[in-house]
Automatic annotation (TrEMBL):
Origin species: Salvia splendens
Keyword Zinc found: no
InterPro entries tied to this protein: Peptidase_S8/S53_dom, Peptidase_S8/S53_dom_sf, Peptidase_S8_His-AS, Peptidase_S8_Ser-AS, Peptidase_S8_subtilisin-rel, Peptidases_S8_3, S8pro/Inhibitor_I9, S8pro/Inhibitor_I9_sf
Record keyword Secreted present: yes
Chief place of localization: secreted
Localization terms from the record: Secreted
GO molecular function: serine-type endopeptidase activity
Single Gene Ontology BP annotation: proteolysis
Protein name per Swiss-Prot or TrEMBL: Peptidase S8
GO CC aspect terms: extracellular region
Family: Belongs to the peptidase S8 family.
Length: 1276
């Protein structure tokens, strides 16, 4: 218990346990500042070829002729940016004189100082005008006789050149409270000392005790150790100087030339003379605000924005929600008002009309339909000193608040990482390495730090001179040049004013004083606290409607009458002729690159009329498409030291067309830093539409278009934005995986921290938005058709269609047209997993179809039981929840964790939930936990889908049944079981599970649209991939209704695997520009790895061994693909021969290959790097023989000899002839045959094997999978 005569001057917050520290000071700098200058460009003189040269000339002309000590290092005005799109002008570093000179220039409009938008570390040093507080007090000046006697848990190795001394003093506290346990350690228990020390950037000796005797001992030792300044953010109630520890110790310190700085205390205006420490020979420091406002922007439906105050500790995603205002309920003084509010609403609370306060609102809001609150109050002083805002909301005042005074209010500095820093909801406590705390405790170390700087700059000055310099140069005005305000600020509140370090460096005159002179002085400083306001966010919704059908029509362009100058006019004429009703047929798109034809809104009668038109081939209804997510590049083996990255110059100048939901161009992943000029061959454009002007394209995003006419025709009553801007984050995510630039320091709420980079970081991106929260095949075709016309090298499509037939599939049709132009289509396998047989719809032989797998990364929560045992579990809870030694509840009657069971659980405990029995749905358990009063959960689960998603809205960890038994044994054996949980941990390498593993939701082959070619082709990383995201779309959730946004997100699916292959293909195309697309695909497939990182066959996430129907040839290995040894090549005619063998009608065939080819030599034996032998229903019970012919080309250096090994499928024989291939030179081609004999047995539906060619040196291993598989007609 603390001595009644001593009290720490912590901030007056009901939420903070023990807060602390410091003061900040306003700085009117004498050096140059950055200004933003607006110009009238029409005034630019003709001799200047660009605005840039004009502005540079103006700066040269404005150059100051005088230099001062402050600006001597910046003698030249410095141009920072020129602006020519949002407005005309520039930004530059200028002196006040130079700004005045610019005002006389022709074309000058206005200029104003630049301001900081995002505070960095403790913005208070910027507010003081300081650029580097640390390091100005060298280790050699800190004293010569100190010691690092830190005691328990604080050995001398923890001291360093920054912390050069540490001691503890608790004997007075021990004597005062002999029954209380005191730890003999200088380690901080409450964060207060850590906070003040980091503010001062070098307070040397931290001695905090519980009794005045301890304080005196600490200060006495500090004087003995030879410190230069003693900083004490602690208060005592002693009123008489001869009893005050501050007065006594400070006088002794002053005699030795040591300055003492101390906090004024946090008693505010509660009575007169609230400063107890009226010590004449100490610097007593008041607390003020900084020009740093913690804002939330409230945007009303009418477009009006209001800047309010909020410190809600997460990026809640609140967009376009219903606003609820009722004069009766706006008092918000009853929980009923919240529970009866409409779902997903924002509630307005006017605290001026009732008895509620902010704490009441935050208590009633959790678990209701209210997603956020707008709190109106005139009583803001306490609110703006505290960071406690556990629910989404914004505080606004009837009047505008004023920005004022010296830094001591909400100062960011280091904190104890195992103490609560803030809270979300009722019971989720969060920790932080840095914390925002208010109080004179925070003001004091600011002045201590400034005194240290002045002492270093003026070593011959005494403490009185340094104090005088700070006081006489202090600023009594705020940032608006008005007197600093409290309710009515006077020197009794602010003393001489807000400290100004730079002016104190050269004060002109100083008031010096001896120790005797100081005896007759006395000053008083109450603390000043203040105000400002913040705000909130928004979200979007949409609706659906329908009407007449949209059809995609294929035409034979060679039959177009010569009277028509273009296919567009021909198709329009056909539609006019087909009209059969009052309403007009509506042309949506015309296609001329991926295939020939158009899409239109038609009645069935009009469609029948079209079928009689010359040139008609086929028509089918437009279908719905849907989206099928960066350590992954390291997992692929890509490195800057060697291999495919340097060989390809990181994919330089390869253009990847992303056909998806658009892009968020402001993401750092799409910066064009390091990119060269756009290739001259590019024919595309930046037509981004609404909210996406051409300036948002750059050397990374070189094109942007959108296509929504199909979905508009399908749903005419729904509103669609004409924009290539991403609404959902899907397109942004896949684009950054394929070719995102290098961005350091990203993570998903602390998980997967590191550097984000695309697979081909120097490739270009062209964006084609076809997903608008709904999409059609006609839009998809239009996007792919335009990508071909624009001249992309690769089309990457992470979207699925339900079309079963190749002649109706947009992927097959557009993919074939793309292949003709030397453009490869890469597409996702789909996310239908093992739900039935043949869940891949896209069995397109001329596209690369990609499956999804895991990476060697585990998002961990470390569970530490009270007996010391640690268990590594799984969690992605998106915050630093603090759970230390919390009681554990293990009760078999409660382990189902249903709503009823959780209601019986004790509050503030960690409950054990077992989802292997009873309530087996993880999402439902999370929802029930979010409505409970327990602090966290230990969840026993075996459901592997948990590890595919980042959704983890309540604090907890997932562990296995075996680990759960360890927890149960401990909990039952202990009378008071406890546990701690640490979050935001990422484990790389061989973690709890082998990798890669085939994702359970990755679609399986054979492909529905064609089963004669093995699909998927390859597997790539697709589970919880970190990549760029749309920052206004929910990325995570806390509790039941707090959605969080993020710039980078973890997503899973074949959508995320697909762009990995697109990126690898871009690298290979850049490294081997002379290779065909078939050769590049072959290189990836024959070098793919069928083994995981334990050198065992890849398994599915459920533990079963994965077959080629799930992983294709295996997991892509980019560096091996760079030099594959042999490749399987194929021409366009080979693909035509394949289509001609498919027993389609003539028109169905022409839908794919058009009229440019003939079918004189049909063949289903495509020269493909995999083998499929089908078992058809009519063949059951027979012994079947399948023969394949293959050609392989030597792409190794020079002559080579290869020998074959066959991994034979079960109940099968497989023979390769010849068994040796001898190549005399590079690029020579050899042929071989594979004959497979097998019993057609439905009991063994799928059998796998492989043909492996190995060269005599052992360098190359060219592998092609074999799949003996039951055909589709067995399951019809």
């Amino acid at each position: 218990m603390m001595s009644p005569s001593l009290k720490m001057a912590f901030p007056n917050s009901a939420v903070q346990l023990l807060l602390s520290l410091f003061l900040l000071v306003h700085h009117v700098s004498s050096q140059r500042s950055t200004y933003i200058v607006h110009m009238d460009k029409s005034s630019m003189p003709n001799p200047f070829s660009s605005h840039h040269f004009w502005y540079s000339s103006l700066l040269t002309s404005s150059k100051s002729t005088s230099q001062t000590c402050a600006n001597a290092d910046k003698s030249e005005p410095k141009l920072i940016y020129t602006y020519d799109h949002a407005f005309h002008g520039f930004s530059a570093v200028l002196s006040a004189d130079e700004v005045e000179a610019l005002k006389n220039s022709a074309g000058f409009i206005s200029a104003y100082k630049d301001s900081v938008v995002t505070p960095d570390t403790i913005h208070s040093t910027n507010f003081l005008g300081l650029t580097s507080a640390s390091g100005l007090w060298p280790a050699s000046n800190y004293g010569k006789d100190g010691a690092c006697n830190g005691g328990e848990d604080f050995n001398s190795s923890l001291c360093n050149k920054k912390i050069i001394g540490a001691r503890y003093f608790n004997q007075g506290g021990r004597a005062e409270n002999p029954d209380r346990e005191f730890k003999d350690s200088a380690r901080d228990d409450d964060g207060h000392g850590t906070h003040v020390a980091s503010i001062a950037a070098g307070n040397i000796v931290l001695f905090f005790g519980a009794a005045e005797s301890d304080m005196l001992a600490g200060m006495d030792q500090a004087v003995a150790d030879g410190v230069d300044i003693i900083s004490v953010s602690i208060s005592s109630r002693a009123e008489d100087l001869y009893e005050s520890p501050f007065a006594i110790a400070s006088f002794g310190a002053r005699e030795k030339g040591i300055m003492v700085c101390t906090s004024a205390g946090n008693r505010g205006t509660r009575g007169v003379r609230t400063i107890f420490k009226g010590v004449p020979w100490a610097v007593v420091v008041a607390s003020g605000t900084v020009d740093c406002w913690f804002a939330g922007t409230l945007t009303l439906g009418n477009g009006k924005t209001i800047t309010g105050w909020t410190t809600f500790p997460a990026r809640a995603n609140i967009r376009n929600l219903q606003l609820v205002y009722n004069q009766t309920s706006s008092a918000c003084d009853s929980p009923v008002f919240f529970t009866e509010a409409p779902s997903d609403s924002i509630f307005i609370c006017n605290l001026n009309t009732g008895n509620a306060d902010l704490g009441t609102v935050m208590l009633y809001q959790p678990g209701t339909n209210v997603l956020a609150s707008i709190v109106i109050t005139s009583t803001t002083a306490e609110i703006f000193r505290s960071t406690s805002l556990p629910e989404p909301g914004v505080v606004i005042t009837p009047e505008e608040g004023e920005e004022v005074m010296a830094p001591g209010v909400l100062i960011l500095a280091a904190f104890h990482p195992q103490l609560m820093a803030t809270r979300i909801g009722r019971n989720i406590d969060l920790s932080s390495d840095y914390n925002l705390i208010s109080g004179t405790s925070m003001a004091c170390p600011h002045v201590s730090g400034i005194a240290a700087l002045l002492k270093a700059a003026h070593p011959d000055w005494g403490p009185a001179a340094i104090q005088s310099a700070m006081m006489t140069t202090a600023n009594p005005l705020d940032s608006n040049k008005q007197p600093i305000k409290d309710l009515e600020a006077s020197p009794l509140g602010i003393g001489s004013g807000h400290v100004d370090p730079d002016r104190a460096l050269d004060p002109g005159l100083v008031y010096d004083a001896s120790v005797q002179d100081l005896v007759n002085l006395k000053m008083e400083f109450p603390n000043a606290v203040f105000h400002l306001l913040f705000s909130l966010l928004f979200l979007l919704v949409h609706h659906v409607s329908s009407q007449r059908s949209t059809y995609i029509v294929h035409m034979d362009k060679s039959t177009m009458p010569k009277a028509f100058s273009s296919h567009h006019f021909w198709y329009s004429s056909l539609l006019t002729s087909s009209k059969r009703s009052v309403s007009e047929p509506k042309l949506i798109y015309t296609y001329d690159h991926a295939f020939h034809g158009f899409s239109a809104v038609l009645s069935e009668d009009e469609l029948e009329a079209l079928k009689n038109s010359a040139g008609f081939i086929s028509a089918y209804k437009d279908g719905v498409v849907m989206p099928d997510t960066t350590h992954s590049s390291k997992f692929l083996g890509l490195t800057s030291a060697s291999g495919l990255w340097p060989a390809s110059s990181y994919g330089k100048d390869i253009i990847i067309g992303i056909v998806d939901s658009g892009i968020w161009p402001e993401s750092p992943s799409f910066s064009d830093d390091g990119m060269t000029e756009i290739p001259a061959r590019w024919k595309g454009a930046c037509n981004g539409g609404e909210g996406f002007n051409a300036s948002l394209c750059n050397r990374k995003i070189i094109g942007a278009r959108y296509f929504n006419q199909g979905i508009r025709a399908e749903d005419p009553d729904q509103e669609f934005k004409d924009s290539a801007r991403d609404d959902t984050g899907h397109g942004t995510h896949v684009a950054s995986i394929a070719a995102g630039n290098i961005v350091e320091g990203v993570s998903f709420f602390g998980y997967a921290p590191g550097t984000a980079r695309g697979v081909a970081p120097r490739a270009r991106l062209a964006v084609y938005k076809v997903l608008f929260r709904g999409a059609t095949e006609s839009d998809l075709l239009a996007g792919m058709d335009q990508a071909i016309a624009d001249g992309v090298d690769i089309i990457s499509v992470s979207i699925s269609s339900r079309a079963n037939n190749l002649y109706e599939s947009p992927f097959a049709i557009a993919g074939f047209g793309a292949r003709e132009k030397g453009i490869m289509l890469v597409t996702s396998a789909g996310n239908r997993g093992t739900r039935g047989i043949r869940t891949i719809f896209k069995g397109v032989p001329w596209a690369v179809v990609v499956a999804s797998g895991t990476v060697d990364r585990w998002f961990a929560g470390t569970l530490t039981l009270g007996n010391g045992k640690t268990i590594t579990g799984w969690t992605t809870y998106p915050a630093t929840a603090i759970l230390r030694n919390v009681p554990v509840v293990y009760n078999q009657s409660l382990t189902g964790c249903t709503t009823a069971e959780l209601a019986e659980a004790p509050e503030n405990t960690i409950i054990v939930c077992n989802t292997t029995i009873g309530n087996t749905n993880f999402d439902i358990v999370m929802e029930d936990l979010s409505n409970s009063n327990v602090k966290a959960a230990i969840i026993i689960a075996e459901e592997t889908s948990i590890f595919r998603f980042s959704t983890f809205p309540y604090p907890g960890v997932v562990i296995t049944a075996a680990q759960g038994q360890q927890v149960a044994d401990y909990a039952l054996a202990s009378a008071t079981p406890t546990a701690s949980i640490d979050f935001q941990q990422t484990i790389l390498g061989r973690g709890p599970r082998a990798a890669p593993a085939l994702s359970d939701d990755s679609s399986r082959g054979p492909g529905r649209s064609y089963e004669g070619i093995l699909k998927p082709d390859l597997m790539a990383p697709g589970v919880l991939i970190l990549a760029a995201f749309q920052p206004h779309f929910p990325a995570a959730r806390i509790g039941r209704n707090i959605d969080l946004s993020a710039d980078y997100n973890l997503l899973s699916g074949t959508s995320m695997a697909c762009p990995h292959i697109s990126g690898v293909l871009a690298l290979l195309k850049a490294a081997h520009p002379d290779w065909s697309l078939a050769a590049i695909q072959s290189a990836m497939m024959t070098t793919a790895n069928p083994l995981d990182n334990t050198n065992q066959p890849i398994r599915a996430q459920d533990g079963s061994v994965a077959s080629p129907l799930g992983i294709g040839s295996g997991h892509v290995d980019p560096n091996r693909a760079l030099d594959p040894g042999l490749i399987y090549d194929a021409s366009m005619q080979d693909l035509v021969n394949l289509v001609c063998s498919m027993n389609f009608t003539r028109n169905q065939t022409l839908t794919i290959i058009r009229s440019s080819y003939n079918c004189t030599n049909p063949s289903s034996d495509l020269n493909y790097p995999s083998f499929v032998a089908l078992i058809r229903a009519a063949e059951m019970g027979r012994t079947l023989t399948r023969r394949f012919r293959r050609r392989v080309t030597n792409v190794g250096n020079g002559a080579a000899t290869y020998k074959v090994t066959v991994e034979v499928p079960v109940n099968t024989t497989a023979v390769v002839r010849p068994q040796t291939l001898v190549f005399g030179k590079k690029y020579e081609t050899k042929s071989y045959s594979l004959t497979i004999r097998y019993k057609a047995d439905i009991e063994i539906q799928h059998r796998e094997g492989a043909v492996i060619w190995t060269d005599q040196t052992g360098k190359y291993r060219v592998r092609s999978p074999i799949m003996v598989s039951a055909a589709a007609d067995n399951f019809e």
